[in-house]
Amino acid sequence: MYKYDEYDQRTVDERVTQFADQTARYLAGELSDDEYRPLRRQNGLYIQRHAPMLRIAIPYGNLCPAQLRMLGHIARTYDRGYGHFSTRQNVQFNWPNLEDVPEILGLLATVQMHAIQTSGNCIRNVTADPFAGVAADEHIDPRPWCEIVRQWSTSHPEFSFLPRKFKIAINGAAQDRAIIRVHDIGLDLVRGPDGDTGFRVLVGGGLGRTPIIGEEISPFVPWQQILNYCEAILRVYNLHGRRDNLHKARIKILVKSVGVAEFARQVDAEFVHTRDGLSTLTQAEIDRVADRFNDPVLPELPAEDAGYAAQLAANKAFANWVKRNVRAHKAPGYVSVVLSLKKIGAAPGDISADQFDAVADLADQYAFGEVRSTHEQNLVLASVRQADLFALWETARSLGLATPNIGLLTDMIVCPGADFCALANARSIPIAHAIQDRFDDLDYLHDIGEIELNISGCMNACAHHHVGHIGVLGVDKSGEEWYQVMLGGDQGNQAVLGKVIGPSLAAADLPDVISTLINTYLDCRHEEERFIDTVHRVGIESFKTRVYVERDARLEGRKRPDAPNH
Amino acid sequence: MPQIIKNGRIQGDEWKVLRGVGNDAAATMAVPAGRVIVPLAVWQAQRPQLASSAEAGMLGVWLTGDTDLAALADDLMALPLIAVDFPRFTDGRGYSIATQLRTRYGYAGELRAIGDVLCDQFSFMIRCGFSTLQPCEERYNRVQIDAALTRPGDFSGPFPRNRRGTR
Predict the structure, then answer these.
(1) Which CATH number fits domain B3-150: 3.20.20.70, 3.10.180.10, 3.40.190.10, 3.20.10.10?
(2) How sure is the predictor about A320, in pLDDT bands with cuts at 50, 70 and 90?
(3) Per-residue pLDDT for B166 more than 50?
(4) Where are the alpha helices (DSSP H) in A118-217?
(5) Closest CA to A346 of A87, A84, A88, A93
(6) Which of A42, A278, A287 has the most B C-beta neighbours within 10 Å, making it the best mutation to test the interface with B?
(7) Is residue A408 part of a domain?
(8) What are phi and psi for residue A127, nearest 5 degrees?
(9) A209-224 b/e (C-beta count within 10 Å ≥ 16 → b)
(10) Is A559 exposed, middle or buried (0-12, 13-18, 19+ CB in 10 A)?
């Protein structure tokens, strides 16, 4: 993982000092609420329902054991003993005191962490494939490019007061795992005709109130020019993005209103002048960053470990976990392991202080100290020997981190919702719990197979409900919590937005609604066909019809208490 | 006398900013004597009368965030002073206007930030090429300004961006 140099450390240290001073001036009444708001947001601090919420950056999801232990310490000392992984690979604490935040930031700086630009109308924390550098299907490692974007965008003087937030994601694998098509800028690492590295650039994607799939604005920008090209995009946006209406201020609205062709023309006109400019990258610069990643040297291993094969054959629970939670690695004899933060009964993405420490220990013992957070709110141990898997599984199981449900229905993406978030219209965690309770049979979950269920508590779409196979959106109807259900969304290379199936549904109905959707799938599916593929093959109509027919039948049944139970 | 920040110090300044007029009044608006920063519309409407004053270094022009620099840049390059107005400190268009004036059009004269100019944004403004800053009027006392100018993290010079690309 990337190790700071003196400039990186100084930047973070200076930001801590600066924020401590800003907060002191705010508390002394020298800064108004309006003046302090963007300053605290650019240090990740929101004022929330119960207390401030501090969002800490995990650049492109990379974490080391010392950082995990510090997060555990912060959870224990300044919060209520737990933290929460967000859908942008960051970590959030929901209960710190405002007065303690400068001290927390100071502690984070000692382990090369910060909360810079995790909120506010600026370039946010860059996200990437959690399997970057180890994935079997990767052609170019995105991490050095992510780090360069992080350094370039940190305290960028021109782009710190944009019309609205700005998110960049980078992919370098055959299968996109960073949902680059729903980011303000999506960068896809590609090889040019001569084998040289460059970027296919997508622009104007995003979810929220107006979900839009990003469009290609350039098929190939040479790596030397990528920051200059991004500056051209950002400058056009900064000057022409709407500032009169918060809900129409994202770049996607600008791109839609002028059309992607005209937007591309404006960017190209600007790029003529930014090309070869101050942000031009050199090989020395790339090497400087890449060399600081210090990837572990993985001893050579045979492709198959005999003991591991025997353990797989002998232990069904272990084999199930491997099937769901283990991924292919580019090096023979190694795998990547997903630790599930989706245990039944837990809030998805939540992690206790003790678990922070325990994951650090697991990483030290089994994973060469490399941990990643995922946008699905789980953790990844990037490189694990096949031979160590069984021991790792046994320990992870005792820690509640080995639920074999990755990619299954209970591996839901869920935002904090109205239990914590001041923006939310409805709660999302209780809905997740009700669905977890309904689908607590592992054999049944495995039979249903791969499915993505994303639950957002409001249209800001933190849980990316538009790209869930099933998306659930909390809405407020005259003070009551209702839920809109979407079907057919997908992430990855074929990212597509789901469609609303009909009128919103009551919270109490949701487990039954999910059951209806699953039953419809089970009735219609071809052999080995995933839920989403069945939905796309048969269309959402039959799912939709059955949801409302069965819902109405339940309502009717409730009205006639003597009616026979069915 | 208005106070401005120049070369990291607060100092008195003779320039007067001539504030808002609708387009129709631009042609008839009286431009006072002395060093004056006029709205772009006044410069465009009264250019024949104002040109000698500009040549003498006594006239500057202030721009809004929606100024189309591509159409105007040639006209502005000879001015001794260009100001960029920040209607609200959260309106960041001025940073791009300043950057374009310096890097794309090569403007070498005095570039001044006016309007809602707050001390927590000083360093961003300097790094985008502003040479003078006129803090929001009556917003700060002298002690606060002095503190802002010595505060760590502000005015510590151009920060490494991409390690080589400093400005």
Answers:
(1) 3.20.20.70
(2) very high
(3) no
(4) 143-153
(5) A84
(6) A278
(7) no
(8) -115, 160
(9) eebbbbbebbeebebb
(10) exposed
Amino acid at A115: A
The verdict on a CB contact (< 8 Å) between A279 and B100 is no
**Is residue A142 domain-shared with residue A285, that is, in the same domain?**
yes
Highest mean pLDDT among A111-125, B17-31, B134-148: A111-125
pTM of the model: 0.95
Residue A566 lies inside a defined structural domain of this protein:
no
Site from A8, A161, A243, A251 to mutate, B interface, most B CB atoms within 10 angstroms: A161
pLDDT tens column, A200-251: 999 999 999 999 999 999 999 999 999 999 999 999 999 999 999 999 999 9
Contact at CB, A155 and B125, closer than 8 angstroms = no
Tokens of A411: 């591996």
Show residues of chain B in contact with A243, CB under 8 Å. 91, 93
Closest-CA residue of chain A to B124:
A157
Nearest CB to A285; choose among B127, B128, B163: B163
> Which positions in chain A touch B121 (Cβ < 8 Å)?
161
For range A527-536, the mean pLDDT: 96
Collect all residues with Cβ–Cβ distance below 8 Å to A323 and sequence separation of at least 6.
A404
Domain that holds residue A534: 413-559
| pLDDT > 50? residue B56 | yes
